Amino acid sequence: RGQVRVLLNSSQLQLNGIFVLFRVVTFGLNAFTLRYLSRELIGVVNVRLTLLYSTVVFLAREAFRRACLSGSTKRNWTKTINLLWLTVPLGVFWSILLGLVWLHLLEVPDPSVVPHYQAGVVAFGLSAIIELLGEPLWVLAQAHLFVRLKVIAESLSVVSKCTLTVILVVLYPQWGLYIFSLTQLLYASVLVMCYVIYFVMFLGSPEATKKSFPVTRVKALLPNLTFVNWKEARLTWSFFKQSFLKQILTEGERYVMTFLNVLNFGDQGVYDIVNNLGSLVARFIFLPIEESFYVFFASVLERGKNVKDQKQDDVAMAANVLELLLKLVLLIGLTITVFGYAYSQLALDVYGGSMLSSGTGPDLLRCYSLYVLFLAINGVTECFTFALMCKEEVDRYNFVMLALSFTFLCISYFLTRWHGSVGFILANCFNMGIRIAHSTHYIYDYFKESTYRPLTGLLPSPFLVLVYIISGVITGFSEVFFCCDKGWMARLIHISMGALCFAATAATIFRTETKLIHFVRSQFLSRYMKKGT
C-alpha cells in the first residue's frame, strides 16, 4: 500500500507540474494579449459570450455527468453512452434558445467598439455543441480515473487557444470578435480531438485488454438503437431540475452584469481580469490546504459525534491542528491584504499596462486583497465544519446557503448601483463574513465542553499586528510618492520599501509564532522534501 501511495504521489506531482507549467504559459500569453485589446472587447468576450458558452454547456451536460458518474463503473456502458449522446441535441436546443436571447433581448455592444458581435454569439454557441460531442468520452475517462488524459487535454486546448489569440491579435487586431470566435472553436476542437485520438489508440490495445476495459471497439462509442439505462435517465432528470438553480448561483455575478446592465462592458472586462488574478491565491494556496485537511479532520474525528464521545487524544490533535491552520491562513491573508493595498496598481500596470492600472482596476484589486483574507478564514473553518457535520446539519446548512445566495445576488445589485464594480467584491465579503460567522459558531459550540479553544488561532500577537500596521502605513506612503507614473527608478524604490517591510514582517512572524513555524516545517516542508526525493 505504501508503494502504491508513493507512485500515486509521484504521478500526481508530475501532473501538477504539467498543469502549473501550462498555467504559467497561459498567464504570460494573456498578459501579452491585454496590451492589444480594449476593455469593452474583453468585457464582451470574458463576461457576455463566456456566460453564453458556460450556460449552454452546464445545462446540457451537468445533470448527465452527475447521474452517469454515480455508483460503480461496472454497468452496461452501451446504454450509458447512449444516454450521454443526448447532451448533443440538448446542447443544440440551448444554443439556439439562448443565442436568440443574447442576440435580440440583451444590449448589443457598439459595432464601432466591439465589431462582429453576432458572429461571436454564433461561434460560442457552436463551440459548446462541439465540446458536447466529446462528453461520452469524458465521462468514460473520468469514471476510470484517466487523470493524465484530462490534464493534458485541457492544458493543450487552453495553450492552443491562447497562442492563436496572441498571433491574431498582433497581426489582425481589426478582426475584433472574429479572433475570439476562431480561438474558442479551436479550444473546443482540440479538447474533443485529444479524447478521440486517445480512445482510438487505447481501445483494442494490450493495455485496455489488461485493464479489462468495458468498451472494446471504437464503434461502441457511437450512438446506436440500444435503449438507454432508465435508472440513470430518471436520475438525470432529478439532477437536471437542480441544475438551473446551481448555475444561477454559480455564475450569479455575470448574470447580474448581463441582464441588469449594472456595469458597462469596459468595467465588466476589468472586473473579470481582476477577479481572475485575485482568485489565483485561492486556487493555488488555500484550495490545496482545504482539501488536504478536510481529509485529515474527517479521518481523525467521527462525524456526528460530540466532543465528549470522541477519543480525547484525537480531539487534542484536531484542536491543535485547527488552531495552527487558522493562524497560518490568517497570516497569509493579512500579508496579502496589507501589501496588496499598496502594490495593486503596480501589479496591474506590470500585468496589463495602463488599460488595467488606470480607472477602477487598482481599487478593485485592493478590495479583492481584503476579500482574500475572508476567503482564507472561511476555507479552513468550513473545512472543519463540513468534516464534522452530520447529514441533518448539512441539509440545514444547504438551506441556509440557498437563502444566503439569493441575498448575495440582491446585495450585489444594490451595492453595484451604489459603488460600481467594487460593489461585487463588497457583496462577496459580506457573503463570506456570514459564512465565517456560521462556521466559527459551530466550532465554538463543538469545543465549548472541552478545554480546547482552537479559535484563538484567529488572534495574532499584538506586536505582529503593530508590525502589519506600520508596514501598511510605510508602503501606502511609498505608493503615493514613488508609484506608478514616476519612472522605473521610483518603482524600484517602491518595491524595495515593500521588500524591507515584508522582511520585517516575516522576521516578526518567526520570532512571535514559533509554534506555527514548527507546524509549517513538519506538515508542509518535510512532506515536500519527501515527495521530491
UniProtKB/TrEMBL annotation:
<keyword id="KW-1133">Transmembrane helix</keyword>
<dbReference type="GO" id="GO:0006488">
    <property type="term" value="P:dolichol-linked oligosaccharide biosynthetic process"/>
</dbReference>
<feature type="transmembrane region" description="Helical">
    <location>
        <begin position="324"/>
        <end position="348"/>
    </location>
</feature>
<feature type="transmembrane region" description="Helical">
    <location>
        <begin position="178"/>
        <end position="203"/>
    </location>
</feature>
<comment type="similarity">
    <text>Belongs to the RFT1 family.</text>
</comment>
<feature type="transmembrane region" description="Helical">
    <location>
        <begin position="397"/>
        <end position="415"/>
    </location>
</feature>
<comment type="function">
    <text>Intramembrane glycolipid transporter that operates in the biosynthetic pathway of dolichol-linked oligosaccharides, the glycan precursors employed in protein asparagine (N)-glycosylation. The sequential addition of sugars to dolichol pyrophosphate produces dolichol-linked oligosaccharides containing fourteen sugars, including two GlcNAcs, nine mannoses and three glucoses. Once assembled, the oligosaccharide is transferred from the lipid to nascent proteins by oligosaccharyltransferases.</text>
</comment>
<dbReference type="InterPro" id="IPR007594">
    <property type="entry name" value="RFT1"/>
</dbReference>
<dbReference type="GO" id="GO:0034203">
    <property type="term" value="P:glycolipid translocation"/>
</dbReference>
<comment type="pathway">
    <text>Protein modification; protein glycosylation.</text>
</comment>
<feature type="transmembrane region" description="Helical">
    <location>
        <begin position="117"/>
        <end position="139"/>
    </location>
</feature>
<keyword id="KW-0256">Endoplasmic reticulum</keyword>
<dbReference type="Pfam" id="PF04506">
    <property type="entry name" value="Rft-1"/>
</dbReference>
<feature type="transmembrane region" description="Helical">
    <location>
        <begin position="488"/>
        <end position="510"/>
    </location>
</feature>
<feature type="transmembrane region" description="Helical">
    <location>
        <begin position="458"/>
        <end position="482"/>
    </location>
</feature>
<feature type="transmembrane region" description="Helical">
    <location>
        <begin position="12"/>
        <end position="29"/>
    </location>
</feature>
<dbReference type="GO" id="GO:0005789">
    <property type="term" value="C:endoplasmic reticulum membrane"/>
</dbReference>
<keyword id="KW-0472">Membrane</keyword>
<feature type="transmembrane region" description="Helical">
    <location>
        <begin position="41"/>
        <end position="60"/>
    </location>
</feature>
<keyword id="KW-0812">Transmembrane</keyword>
<feature type="transmembrane region" description="Helical">
    <location>
        <begin position="421"/>
        <end position="437"/>
    </location>
</feature>
<feature type="transmembrane region" description="Helical">
    <location>
        <begin position="151"/>
        <end position="172"/>
    </location>
</feature>
<protein>
    <recommendedName>
        <fullName>Protein RFT1 homolog</fullName>
    </recommendedName>
</protein>
<feature type="transmembrane region" description="Helical">
    <location>
        <begin position="81"/>
        <end position="105"/>
    </location>
</feature>
<feature type="transmembrane region" description="Helical">
    <location>
        <begin position="368"/>
        <end position="390"/>
    </location>
</feature>
